[in-house]
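Researcher: Next entry in the queue.
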Amino acid sequence: MSNIKYNWDGLTGLFSIVFGLAYGGYAYSLPQPMFGNPLEAIFLPLAVSAISIFIGVLLILTSGFTPSLLAIKALLNESPQRKSDRRKIAITCVICVLYAMLFEHAGYVISTFLFMFSMLTVTCGKTFWKKSALISIIFAGGIFITFNEMLSVNLPPFPFFN
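Model: Structure for this entry, 162 residues:
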């Protein structure tokens, strides 16, 4: 029996490096201010990016590759219930990214309806789709009316009413 335990530090470090590179790339592409120091607006995001990359490299160097490979092997041999839970978490993350990308283009009501409907479908199952659709449209419409009409806080409107 080996005394090597598995851990996720190597994979976490790899994720941290990828995140830092992507975040830094987007931060570097921010528009420059009209006056003043052109790097002033992107200094903090670039610092966050550099720190993320540095921490990722440290995690990879200190963790070793064998424990990370053992962690992946243990993940593949998990029970079906845990695999189902992890799949739901991954689907939830994808849905959140799609919601963020769709929000400005489709407007608040459409994107929030799709987001809530898909989240309720993931959590409650496909058999309750009518109830999920009803809850989603009431919530999205109610919040839109409350903020736009009653509180005068503008949310992104419907794309066809511009």
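Model: The helical segments are 9-28, 43-63, 65-76, 80-106, 108-124, 129-150.
Researcher: Noted, moving on.
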